[in-house]
Amino acid sequence: IDDLIKEVSSLKEALLQKGESLGKQQRLTKGIAKLVSNTSEQQQPPQPALPEEERQKREAEKADKRKARKNNGAKRDMHYEMEQEEHDVYPDDPDF
To answer: Which region ranges are annotated with the description Disordered (predicted)?
Structure first.
């Protein structure tokens, strides 16, 4: 009977240790899965250097795709009735 009790207790300890290691493994896999799913943590493969012509072509395409600014049909308000006056300002002048 004593031998059976010792064997059961050793099996119980082994089962508990297995459960602890299993929990540790699950926590590790969950953490790694979070890192893998996070796009900021993913490394991109190195891009081959493009020739100068190819790079300029892509930049030109990007510039063409950009939306031109529009003014929604509003006209610039030009004040033609106003006059311009020019004044010379001298730092030595007491009125300055």
So the answer is: 36-96
